[in-house]
Design goal:
The protein has five helices and no strands. It is mainly alpha-helical and 74 residues long. The chain has a single domain, classed as 434 Repressor (Amino-terminal Domain) (Orthogonal Bundle), CATH 1.10.260. Helix 2 packs across helix 3.
Length: 74
């Protein structure tokens, strides 16, 4: 079972590796820089629409951030 701590850690790592500043990311997705800081510190998680925008800006797969493994069986 995935925890919010694991999601927060993956998101924080992706943000750190992006090369963007917190302010740049915040401007691109339409939130305040404090929100990005809050995600990095594990205080909060982004809403789903914000997570979607983050994944787009950071060129990430949301399944990876959410620790979802895709089943090959349908």
């Amino acid at each position: 079972m995935i925890t919010t701590i694991e999601i927060s850690k993956k998101l924080a790592e992706a943000i750190r590796q992006s090369g963007f500043t917190q302010k740049e990311i915040a401007d691109k997705i339409g939130v305040r820089q404090q929100q990005i800081s809050s995600y990095l510190n594990g205080k909060t998680l982004p809403a789903l629409d914000t997570l979607s925008r983050l994944c787009t800006v950071l060129d990430l797969d949301s399944n990876e951030i959410l620790c979802v493994e895709r089943s090959k069986e349908y």
